[in-house]
């Protein structure tokens, strides 16, 4: 009964406070799904309230989907799908904010690069050059693999010519890449491993494929290898999905040693590694040495995914896969069944953009801009939120993953709704876990869409809420 204990506040009706406490116990797993709640008489005596108060508590819990009544037996806890309503509200937030109203918000949720830094003039030049050079061909369908010029230049400029362009497949961003791979190699009841926490979009795809999902905790330098190998020994694993640098959401990066060990295990236990290279170009710490899983993959076990949308411009929607030889045909067929071809004009324009040196120049420029915001956020976390949250400094990327200190009795869901009322948008941590309850104390804040004035305002709002 001790877990039901509560210190009442004078201003709020007691039945609301009791109901809120029980909801939190259910969300946190301290009261299990289907567990019988105390009888009305017992709980009223324990909390020192009258029976009618507990009657109203249980009615409220039932109306909100947190409990159900068994006639003649009592009231039982019901674990809700936290993500369902929250995800709807989260998505609707962005749909309902007009362009005019958006400027009034502090957007810590979006992670796309700020459009004002995009070099439109350079992109205009390459678009015009493509149309002058290729004419109507620039608007036609490309072959399945994608525009050959772009594939060749990806190999030349990003892989020093060491990747055969025939193994490069152009896709419409990382999300489509994960979907194509999943359709190609993951069947119903196949076993896959993901990081805990991990990218919510990938989780959704694997759930849709009805795979059995195992999670392995993220820690400094990558996943917990001992935990990882225990799962491999007991289960036939089809693939492992990972984000090698500035992982979404934690911001953690893999050490070279852990990458080598995971590749060894992939060869030993016969599974593929799906490497989602998220934001490896956005680096502020010179000590971070970039070496992808794919770069040290001698057994052809790594399916590499790279999106240009996250660091370039979301509307362009271009990325690419590097396919292992054994499953190349399966992945190509999956791409054909998905959408046939990615925009020919955008592929040709991006090809020239890379070839003319604009890409490298752009990356260097935005690294300078975003490093200032990154350091500004760290300084504010350390000074304003120092006793309220814990965080790591990832050394790159566009976001931070914050843990609400245990003494603060507020979940990331409460924080999301209260921030939203104050025109500050954050991403709740529950989206990044197979079991949403694991993420209740976490939230993510990005800084790609916010200048320093807005960052300050947003952190001040979070600070006032967490008090």
Automatic annotation (TrEMBL):
Keywords attached to this entry: Aminotransferase, DNA-binding, Pyridoxal phosphate, Transcription, Transcription regulation, Transferase
InterPro entries to which the protein is assigned, alphabetical: Aminotransferase_I/II_large (IPR004839), HTH_trans_reg/aminotransferase (IPR051446), PyrdxlP-dep_Trfase (IPR015424), PyrdxlP-dep_Trfase_major (IPR015421), PyrdxlP-dep_Trfase_small (IPR015422), Tscrpt_reg_HTH_GntR (IPR000524), WH-like_DNA-bd_sf (IPR036388), WH_DNA-bd_sf (IPR036390)
Gene3D superfamilies according to UniProt: Aspartate Aminotransferase, domain 1, Type I PLP-dependent aspartate aminotransferase-like (Major domain), Winged helix-like DNA-binding domain superfamily/Winged helix DNA-binding domain
Any one Gene Ontology molecular-function term assigned to this protein's record: DNA-binding transcription factor activity
One family name in Pfam for this protein: Aminotran_1_2
Domain HTH gntR-type: 12-80
Family statement drawn from the similarity comment of this UniProt entry: In the C-terminal section; belongs to the class-I pyridoxal-phosphate-dependent aminotransferase family.
Record-linked PANTHER family: HTH-TYPE TRANSCRIPTIONAL REGULATORY PROTEIN GABR
Protein name, UniProt field: Transcriptional regulator of MocR family (DNA-binding HTH domain and aminotransferase domain)
Organism per entry: Clostridium acetobutylicum (strain ATCC 824 / DSM 792 / JCM 1419 / IAM 19013 / LMG 5710 / NBRC 13948 / NRRL B-527 / VKM B-1787 / 2291 / W)
């Amino acid at each position: 009964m001790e877990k039901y204990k509560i210190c009442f506040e004078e201003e709020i009706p007691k039945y609301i406070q009791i109901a809120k406490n029980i909801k939190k116990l259910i969300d946190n797993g301290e009261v299990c799904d289907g567990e019988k709640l105390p009888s009305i008489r017992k709980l009223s005596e324990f909390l020192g309230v009258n029976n009618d108060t507990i009657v109203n508590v249980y009615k409220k819990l039932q109306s909100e989907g947190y409990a159900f009544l068994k006639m003649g037996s009592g009231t039982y806890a019901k674990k809700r799908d936290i993500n369902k309503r929250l995800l709807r509200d989260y998505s609707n937030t962005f749909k309902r904010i007009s362009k005019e109203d958006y400027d009034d918000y502090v957007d810590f949720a979006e992670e796309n690069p700020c459009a004002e830094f995009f070099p439109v003039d350079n992109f205009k030049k390459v678009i015009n050059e493509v149309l002058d050079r290729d004419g109507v061909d620039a608007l036609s369908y490309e072959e399945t693999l994608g525009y050959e010029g772009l594939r060749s230049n990806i190999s030349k400029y990003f892989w020093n010519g060491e990747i055969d362009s025939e193994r490069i497949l152009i896709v419409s961003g990382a999300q489509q890449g994960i979907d194509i791979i999943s359709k190609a190699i993951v069947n119903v009841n196949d076993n896959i491993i993901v990081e805990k926490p991990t990218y919510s979009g990938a989780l959704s795809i694997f759930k849709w494929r009805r795979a059995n999902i195992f999670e392995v905790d993220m820690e400094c330098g990558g996943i917990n290898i001992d935990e990882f190998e225990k799962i491999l020994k007991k289960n036939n694993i089809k693939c492992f999905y990972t984000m090698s640098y500035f992982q979404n959401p934690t911001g953690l990066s893999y050490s070279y040693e852990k990458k080598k060990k995971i590749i060894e295990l992939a060869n030993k236990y016969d599974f593929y590694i799906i490497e989602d290279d998220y934001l490896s170009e956005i680096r502020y710490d010179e000590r971070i040495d970039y070496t992808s899983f794919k770069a040290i993959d001698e057994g052809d076990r790594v399916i590499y995914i790279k999106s240009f949308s996250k660091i370039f411009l979301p509307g362009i929607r271009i990325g690419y896969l590097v396919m292992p030889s054994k499953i190349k045909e399966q992945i190509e067929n999956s791409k054909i069944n998905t959408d046939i071809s990615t925009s020919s004009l955008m592929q040709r324009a991006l090809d020239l953009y890379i070839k003319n040196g604009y890409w490298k120049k752009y990356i260097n420029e935005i690294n300078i801009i975003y490093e200032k915001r990154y350091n500004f956020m760290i300084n504010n976390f350390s000074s304003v939120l120092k006793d309220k949250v814990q965080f790591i400094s990832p050394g790159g990327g566009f976001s931070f993953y914050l843990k609400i200190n245990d003494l603060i009795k507020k979940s990331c869901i409460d924080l999301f709704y209260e921030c939203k009322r104050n025109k500050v948008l954050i991403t709740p941590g529950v989206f990044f876990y197979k079991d949403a309850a694991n993420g209740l104390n976490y939230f993510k804040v990005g800084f790609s869409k916010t200048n320093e004035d807005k960052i300050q305002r947003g952190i001040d709002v979070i600070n006032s809420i967490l008090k």
